[in-house]
Specification:
Layout: E1 16-21, E2 27-33, E3 43-47, H1 58-66, E4 70-74, H2 99-115, E5 120-125, H3 127-137, E6 145-149, H4 161-173, H5 203-216, H6 226-237, E7 252-257, H7 265-273, E8 278-283, H8 295-308, H9 315-325, H10 330-334
Length: 353
C-alpha cells in the first residue's frame, strides 16, 4: 500500500497509511496524521465526494495540520484504492447508500476512537456531505460538529431529475445495475479538459488534480453505475421531507457554491433554513469543489471554518453532561418531569428517511 504523490502534490507531514476492514468485508484505504502540536485542537475527518481519493486532499490536510488538528481521511468503498463490489475497478458502484455507514463506522471504531485525539469533527464534501447529514439525522454521526461543502442534497447537473430517476430505477430492475450510466465510461472526470469543467475555476489546482488522478490510475474511477445513480436518487429524496432538517441537532455549517453546476444551491439553502443547529453560507462565484478553488474563494471557506471549528460545546449536551456528573437529570432538577433543555424541541415524526 502506498501514496501516489506528484511534484505539485507532495504528501504532507508524516502520515500513517493503513487498511481496515468493514463489517461486511470491504477493505478501506485509510490515512491519518497526528497533530503537529503538543496541544491538538482535536481531529478532523475528511469525507470525500464521489470519485475522489486521499491524494486529492493533500493540500487540505496540510491546511488542517497548520491549524493544530490531527487529520483522518479514507477512500469510500468503490473508489480510490478501497475495495470494489464489481470486477471493473473504474466503475463507481455501490449497492445501496446505507453501505457507506459501514465504512464510516469502521473508521470510527478502528481509527478515530483508538488513535485520534478528541473532539472529533467532520469536513465533508458533496456525496460525503449527504452521507454525513443523513447520519446526523439518524443520530449516529460520530462527530462533535460538521462542516460540509456543496452537499449532495439535490442535483442541478441533471435537468430532468424525475425522468432520470425513473430511468435509473427501471434499468436496475431490468438487471443493468452494474453497468455504467447511459453515456458514461471509464474516464475520470478529473482528467477532462479544464475548459468547461464543473469543478473549479482554478486552472492550477485543476491541473494538479488531473495529474493526481492520472498517477493513481484505476483509483480514479469513471462514471457511476446505474445502481449508484438509482441509490443516490432514492437517498436524496429523503432531504425533501419537511421535518427532515428540523431533526438534525448536530451543530452544522453548510458552505454552498454560488456557481455550482453539479449540486443545486437553492435546494441547499432551503434545507439549511430549516436547520435548528446550523446554517448555510454561499460563496459567490465558487464552483462545485470549493476546497479546490482559487485562493480568494478558499480564504472565505477557511474564515468560515475557523469561526465554526472547534467551536464551543453544544449547550444542551453540555448541560446534560454537567448534570450527569452530579448524578442528576434535568427532570430531577426541574421537578416537573420535563427536561427544560429539550422541552422546546420539535418532536414531530419526520417523513421519509
Amino acid at each position: 500500500m502506498e501514496f501516489f504523490p506528484t511534484p505539485d502534490n507532495p504528501v504532507p507531514g508524516e502520515p500513517v497509511l493503513t487498511s481496515i476492514t468493514t463489517a461486511d468485508g470491504i477493505a478501506l484505504r485509510v490515512a491519518y496524521w497526528k497533530a503537529e502540536t503538543d496541544r491538538p485542537k482535536g481531529t478532523v475527518c475528511i469525507l470525500h465526494g464521489r470519485a475522489e481519493f486521499i491524494e486529492k486532499y493533500f493540500e487540505t490536510v496540510g491546511d488542517l495540520l497548520k491549524r493544530g488538528f490531527a487529520v483522518v481521511t479514507f477512500d469510500w468503498r468503490g473508489q480510490g484504492f478501497s475495495g470494489r463490489q464489481v470486477k471493473n475497478p473504474r466503475k463507481g458502484h455501490v449497492r445501496r447508500f446505507a453501505d457507506y455507514r459501514l465504512d464510516l463506522e469502521a473508521v470510527r471504531d478502528q481509527i478515530l476512537i483508538p488513535h485520534m485525539p478528541e473532539p472529533h469533527f467532520a469536513l465533508a464534501h458533496s456525496m460525503g456531505g449527504a452521507i454525513a447529514l443523513n447520519a446526523a439525522y439518524e443520530s449516529w454521526l460520530p462527530f462533535r460538529r460538521l462542516v460540509t461543502t456543496t452537499p449532495m442534497i439535490a442535483l442541478s447537473i441533471v435537468r430532468r431529475t424525475r425522468s432520470a430517476a425513473l430511468l435509473a430505477r427501471l434499468l436496475r430492475l431490468l438487471g443493468f445495475g452494474t453497468m455504467f450510466v447511459p453515456g458514461g465510461g471509464e474516464t475520470s472526470i478529473s482528467t477532462l479538459p479544464f475548459k468547461g469543467n464543473r469543478l473549479t475555476s482554478d486552472p492550477l489546482r485543476y491541473s494538479r488534480n488531473a495529474d493526481a488522478a492520472t498517477a493513481i490510475g484505476p483509483g480514479a474511477i469513471g462514471a457511476p453505475t446505474v445502481a449508484w445513480l438509482d441509490s443516490a436518487f432514492r437517498f436524496m429524496k429523503c432531504f425533501t421531507a419537511p421535518n427532515y432538517a428540523l431533526k438534525i441537532r448536530l451543530p452544522t455549517l453548510i458552505i454552498a457554491a454560488g456557481a455550482d453546476p453539479v449540486c443545486a444551491t437553492p435546494a441547499t439553502e432551503r434545507f439549511a433554513a430549516r436547520l435548528k443547529a446550523g446554517h448555510a453560507i454561499v460563496i459567490p462565484g465558487a464552483r462545485h469543489e470549493i476546497l479546490m478553488e482559487r485562493d480568494e474563494i478558499r480564504e472565505q471557506f477557511w474564515a468560515a471554518f475557523d469561526a465554526f471549528i472547534p467551536g464551543t460545546p453544544d449547550p444542551v449536551v453540555k448541560q446534560e453532561a454537567d448534570l450527569a456528573a452530579l448524578g442528576l437529570s434535568a427532570e430531577q432538577l426541574d421537578g416537573s418531569g420535563v427536561n427544560p433543555a429539550v422541552a422546546s424541541r420539535d418532536d414531530t415524526p419526520a417523513i421519509g428517511g
